[in-house]
Design brief:
The chain is an alpha+beta fold. It has one domain (about 25-345): Sandwich (Jelly Rolls). It has helices at about 25-30, 35-45, 60-70, 75-80, 115-120, 130-165, 170-175, 245-250, 295-305, 310-315, 320-330, 340-345, and strands at about 20-25, 50, 90-95, 110-115, 185-190, 200-205, 210-215, 220, 230, 240-245, 260-265, 275-280. The protein has an eight-stranded mixed β-sheet with strand order 1-2-10-7-12-5-4-3. A four-stranded antiparallel β-sheet has the order 6-11-8-9, with no helix packed on it. A hairpin with an 8-residue loop joins strand 8 and strand 9 (about 230). Helix 3 (about 60-70) packs antiparallel against helix 6 (about 130-165). The longest helix has about 30 residues, at about 130-165. Bound molecules: 2-oxoglutaric acid and fe (ii) ion (FE2). The site of fe (ii) ion has 3 residues, from loops. 2-oxoglutaric acid (AKG) binds next to strand 5, strand 7, strand 11 and strand 12. Belongs to the iron/ascorbate-dependent oxidoreductase family. InterPro entries: DIOX_N (IPR026992), IPNS-like_FE2OG_OXY (IPR044861), IPNS-like_sf (IPR027443), Iron_ascorbate_oxido_reductase (IPR050231), Oxoglu/Fe-dep_dioxygenase_dom (IPR005123). Keywords: Iron, Metal-binding, Oxidoreductase.
Length: about 350
């Protein structure tokens, strides 16, 4: 099993951890006004926050155990359900198949993504099939994880919906449980002892709506708005790191911030350990058109104040499916041609990634 959090070396005392707001999920659910305002503050500034009291504490590490079991299969078998180069991300990802920078440097991490649609439809296949070893974990591990993240996501979407002055249920309509989307779980393992300076995951913004992340050791970094230095995000036991992703930046006319982040080797004694992380990406259903929701005066007022260039970048005029497929395709090492394919892979913070 991946080394449990409590047995890992502590966060090195000489490494500064960037402060994130800690949001209490129980208070959000109870409609606590102060906590709701704090969530809005987090989403509209750095776009990253910790979530506590969410009830999913065991579910994220269980995903590491699931993936470890799957990664133990022979490579040949894992390659039978590889993601492919056509812009879908569901399935296995071998080391080196994603790029980490504009030069096309291949990544050092192994990954496994499972579609929300497959987890909910199991034992039916909604989007693709996986190895038996994955299927064995669908009901005990993957589906409960997906269900919890859908719950967290829906609660926060309704709050953002209200704060954005949108008619009730507007954001929920784009994220209906049974509509196909690129929503998915991702579990990645970075090897121990990666050389310092190597990127495990290159600088990017997330493709979807909200992301939910738990990792065992350091390495996650954010580049806060207006800052020129990458800042370290420290994993806190029992806390989920949540972040706004591109679709919410677009829907909100830029009010909510999908911030650039990346993964580097952990510092100090932690660098001698494998790094495990599990993410759930909520993404809008495939046919949702990505555009600012100008029917809200809060959104339209914010949007009208933006430069024409920024307005253009927040009006891609494509569906969620098209946006995702274009980016995912250009993330693949095999499709990399040069800086243009790197740029085509980037999101709403195009210029900074
Ligand atoms: O592993 C992490 O800490 C972050 C991974 C990430 O940003 C991603 O997969 O989008
Ligand atoms: Fe990410």
């Amino acid at each position: 099993m991946p080394v449990p959090f409590k047995e890992l070396p502590a966060w090195p005392s000489n490494v500064e951890a960037h402060p994130l707001l800690v949001i209490d999920y129980e208070l959000l659910k109870a409609g606590d006004k102060t906590e709701i305002d704090r969530l809005w503050e987090a989403g509209s500034t750095l776009g990253f926050w910790y979530l506590k009291n969410h009830g999913g504490e065991q579910l994220f590490p269980a995903m590491w155990g699931m993936a470890e079991d799957v990664f133990a299969l022979p490579l040949e078998e894992k390659m039978t359900f590889e993601q492919g180069d056509e812009g879908l991300s569901f399935g296995y990802k071998a080391v080196g198949h994603y790029i980490t920078d504009a030069q096309g440097t291949p990544d050092p991490v192994e990954g496994l993504d499972i579609a929300k649609d497959d987890a909910l439809a199991y034992p039916k296949v909604a989007r693709r099939s996986y190895a038996d070893r994955v299927n064995e974990h669908m009901e005990p591990t993957i589906a409960p994880f997906v269900e919890k993240c859908i719950e967290l996501s829906n609660t926060m979407l309704d709050i953002f919906n209200d704060k954005l002055g949108l008619p009730a249920g507007t954001l929920a309509k784009f994220h209906q449980r049974n509509d196909h989307s690129s929503s998915e779980t991702r579990t990645i393992r970075a090897p121990a002892n990666l050389p310092q300076g190597k990127l495990a995951v290159g600088g990017h913004t997330d493709f979807g709506t909200i992301s939910f992340l738990v990792n065992n050791i350091g390495g996650l970094q954010v580049l806060p708005p207006g800052d020129t230095e990458w800042r370290n995000v420290r994993p806190l036991p029992g806390h989920v790191v949540c972040n706004i992703a591109d679709a919410l930046t677009i829907f909100s006319g830029g009010l909510l911030n999908s911030n650039i982040h990346r993964v580097v080797p952990p510092s100090g004694a932690q660098s001698a350990y494998e790094r495990w992380s599990s993410v759930y990406f909520t993404r809008p259903s495939n046919d949702t058109v990505l555009q600012p929701l100008l029917e809200s005066s809060i959104v339209s007022d914010a949007f009208n104040k933006l430069t024409e260039e920024r307005q253009k970048s927040l009006t891609p005029g494509v569906t969620s499916y098209e946006w995702f497929t274009r980016r995912q395709k250009n993330y693949r090492t095999k499709n990399h041609k040069g800086t243009e394919t790197w740029a085509a892979n980037r999101g709403t913070e195009n210029g900074r990634a």
